[in-house]
Amino acid sequence: MIDSHFHLADEAFEPDLEAVVGRALGAGVRQGLCILAAGDAVEGAERLAGLWPAVRFAAGVHPHQAGAFAGDPGRAVATVRAALAANDRVRAVGEIGLDYHYEFAPRSVQQDVFAHQVRLARELDLPVVIHTREATEDTVAIIRREGGAALRGVFHCFSGDADMAREALDHGVSLTVFAEGGRTLDGRVKPFQKGVFRIVRDLGFPIVPMSMVGSFEFNRKGSWMLHPSTIVVHLHDTIETKGLSREELEALPDRVYEIVAKPVHAALEGSGAKGIGEGPA
Q1: Strand order in 55-60's β-sheet?
Q2: Architecture in CATH of 1-175
Q3: Is the dihedral of CA 190, 195, 201, 207 positive or negative?
């Protein structure tokens, strides 16, 4: 199994990093992609690579940090180049993108920094890891303008509609879309919202119901820390949506909910541990 996105080079994991890696390997996570903030976490990355030789890295300037490069997006590119030169395990540019929800940097600054990094990824023929929140239209416009047909990568965070999803896919960027749901305080799965099912309806995408059973550990900083080893993933049979009647499409949220919730709730009832449940991929 490959974990495609984690932040184990973060200092929050430093005190017990060896144990975290050991649990991940013991749970069957053989490889993974660790996300680095370009210019930071060098020591953490080196230590993680020493403990887990199969790990690879992505380095980039996150939209939350774009303000540090206001007026000089070329310096952001230089920072990413330096990260690439310093570590031959860096194999992607990311995570990069736009975040208009928190808007820690002005939108125009985020756009400049993002565009320059997409251009760099295309130049170096590296995949991108894209974060976009409430900014899908501008994100896709930059991908279209700067990435062209050669761009490839993944949306780590995507909040667009069916048209945006189709355009992203046409430009070589993969999407894994989860239904918006959530969980109760005791870890049970809440009913799903309809949004992702409308995308499925409009594009005819198949649904792969996926249950994630695991536990959270509360770290000393007061935020939830999820370790790679704490998740057991259940991939259920694919549901083909092309050719379904209107009534069958409308019933999909409830159908998928029942499939996804079953192993999550069974694990909770069996162990008393908290779990998390996600929706279709």
Answers
A1: 2-6, 31-37, 55-60, 90-99, 128-133, 153-157, 173-174
A2: Alpha-Beta Barrel (3.20)
A3: negative
Query: What burial letters (b/e) apply to 152-177, b meaning 16+ CB within 10 Å?
Result: bbbbbebbbebebbbbbeebbbebeb
Q: Kindly report the average pLDDT of the chain as a whole number.
A: 84
Global confidence as pTM: 0.76
Domain positions in the chain are 1-175, 177-281
Tokens standing for 195? Answer: 């949004």
Straight-line distance from the first to the last Cα atom of the chain, in angstroms, rounded to the nearest whole number: 16
Contact yes or no for 281/210 (Cβ under 8 A): yes
Confidence (pLDDT) at 41? 60
Question: What six digits make up the tokens of 224?
Answer: 């939830």
pLDDT bin (cut points 50, 70, 90) of residue 72 is very high
User: pLDDT for 172-204, tens place per residue?
Assistant: 777 666 676 777 777 788 888 887 888 777 878
Per DSSP, the residues of the chain read -EEEEE-TTSGGGGGGHHHHHHHHHHTT--EEEEEEETTS-HHHHHHHHHH-TTEEEEEE--GGGGGGGTT-HHHHHHHHHHHHHH-TTEEEEEEEEEETTT-SS-HHHHHHHHHHHHHHHHHHT--EEEEEES-HHHHHHHIIIIIGGG--EEEEE----HHHHHHHHHTTEE--------B-TTSPBPPPPSHHHHHHHHHT--B-BEEEEE--EE-TTSSEE--GGGEEEEEPPPB--TT--HHHHHTHHHHHHHHHHHHHHHHHHHH--------B-
